[in-house]
Amino acid sequence: MPFHPLWLLVILAVVLIIFGPGRLPELGGAVGKAMREFRKATNEITNEVTSATQPKPEPPAPAESTATGPSSEANTSKS
To answer: Please, are residues 27 and 19 in contact by the beta-carbon 8 Å criterion?
Structure first.
């Protein structure tokens, strides 16, 4: 079923007749707010699914000190 510009005009005329010109800004604001909330929820769900499916990187193992000099524990005990 192809989209026809006349259909849009008919829908807008019916909405204008039903709600009147005073309520159209309120309706537009409500529709915009609903679209923003839907987009926000969709992005949050997408981010959760993406983060759940990606493997978590393993933290690097701490490097062991092989120096033969004094250790940091010995320096702290002298203070």
So the answer is: yes
